[in-house]
Amino acid sequence: xxxxxxxxxxxxxxxxxxxxxxxxxxTIVEWVPSGQLGIDRAKQEPFDLILLDVExxxxxxxxxxxxxxxxxxxxxxxxVFLSGQTDPVTQMKGLELGAEYFLSKPIxxxxxxxxxxxxxxxxxxxxxxxxxxxxx
Length: 136
Prior knowledge:
It is a single chain. The protein is of the alpha/beta class and 136 residues long. The chain has a single domain (4-133), classed as Response regulator (Rossmann fold). The protein is built from five helices and five strands, in the order βαβαβαβαβα. α2 (35-44) runs parallel beside α3 (61-70). The protein is globular.
């Protein structure tokens, strides 16, 4: 089953770039231009990952993340921040709000794919048949 990603960013080209970059993987990417529209869309259909811009007019990324993590129906959707702000204070604030990761713009596509792969694997239950045999 393909991974479904919701990109919430006021710049449409970010959604387009991510969609094109992940086309090889059959990842389903949707884009919305605001935090409120992202919340509304995620309430209609669950996503495997939310990619969320920090700086947006109106409801910014921090406020949007706060809403996602407080809502019973949305809080299980992993949130990854996207931002041109690379200072540790901004990144820490995002992680303290419950985001799983923080990606800096410009986005490194290999890092983006690694995060998506890791978080989509985390959603599945992993059973280890004989843990004693893994490490001698």
